[in-house]
């Protein structure tokens, strides 16, 4: 139940993370969109603002030119009518400004062919008007003011001024149209930016709302789930203690049953072995009697009696003896496993390199005979565990590597180990005959063996190793291919916890 609640919490947590990631991604996209819209709108606004400002500059330049032109014309007329030098000086000042002002207009309208053409026309008209007005000013200055006034109505300056005014009005109208268009574009760009900003803001608010609701619901569900989990955890310790007690009791019953069964099997087996010895003695006496009968009265000895006494009985007794000896070894193995299960674990600090070295020394004579080697690769982790059990585990696996060697090559056994968190992983690698992958699990079963049965044994060694490894809080497995050797991996705690082990 607790596991189910924990799994539900993990599933809800993963679902929340996915939803929040999608929400964050959507919000991020919205912010990117808003940023792009802001950048694009700002860029367009700047361009439109520059164009609007340019239109205002052109319009102001045309207006200044028009004012200067009218002031020069007014000063000319005042000079013709009064002959006063004040009007002449004012005329000269305005005439001096007309050229630069028209040049400014021309420079501002270089990007507009229509306006550039209008400026060129105005320049030609201004040149003609200036010529006419210059003559009238010269006549007045030289004392022919009456003649200058008389010519005023017939010279071309009046028509030229009208033509210039018309051209200037057309230019102003064109700039006003451009100004209106550019102002409209600027307003549209601003409206687009505000729309994009509003949409992005709406998306961000939507994402924030969805995230808030989701987190609120998840927090509420998480609180409820944790409350249920806490409720289950409150009783979990009692359940663990109860089940551990049940397992310990069951383990004790299994060990007691194995011991009783083995003990009870041994009693009739001893009787069978005793009667087998008596049969063997009787068979020998019968064979001696048959020999004397053949010497004194051979005619009474039949072939059946001779075959039974000399072949059938010895063969049957041999089969019985072989079977009882095998049964005796199997019962001893069961008793050994049973006694090992009842033995108290005594943790102590074990130098694994020294332990492996001791095992190698005990096998050195056999290794010298077959040209084999046992090496330690690197530094082996130090364990705090039961010395007798761990020594039996490593000795059994290493002895098996020597026992099931490949005759085609010298034995090479390498032991390595490393720490993985609070555990140690040892590997015992050999170059022996290997184990079929289909038998990787069965080789650890009691009385089960793999491959060609050309070596003595009852199939209890690796079963014993696995039982010992489990008692030490570890596991053992094998990786192997036929003809390519085997690697046994032993995973053990660095420090055994005897409180969690079966008694």
Question: What's the structural blueprint in terms of helices and strands?
Answer:
Elements: H1 2-82, H2 85-108, H3 113-141, H4 145-152, H5 157-296, H6 303-342, E1 347-350, H7 352-370, E2 373-377, E3 383-386, H8 387-403, E4 412-420, E5 423-430, H9 461-471, E6 475-480, E7 486-493
Parallel strand pairs: 2-4
Antiparallel strand pairs: 1-3, 4-5, 5-7, 6-7
Structure description:
It contains 9 helices and 7 strands, in the order H-H-H-H-H-H-E-H-E-E-H-E-E-H-E-E. It has 503 residues and is an alpha+beta fold. The protein folds into 3 domains: 219 residues; 97 residues; 154 residues, Heat Shock Protein 90 (2-Layer Sandwich), CATH 3.30.565. A 5-stranded mixed β-sheet has the order 2-4-5-7-6. The longest helix is centred in the middle third of the chain and has 140 residues. This is histidine kinase. It catalyses: ATP + protein L-histidine = ADP + protein N-phospho-L-histidine. It comes from Sphingomonas floccifaciens. GO terms for molecular function: ATP binding.
Give descriptors for this structure.
503 residues, alpha+beta, Heat Shock Protein 90, two-stranded antiparallel ribbon, five-stranded mixed β-sheet, single chain, 3 domains, rod-shaped
Principal-axis shape equals rod-shaped
Q: Major sheet: order of its strands?
A: 2-4-5-7-6
Tell me the structural class: alpha+beta
Total discrete domains: 3
What is the first-to-last residue Cα distance?
Answer: 28 Å
Number of helices: 9
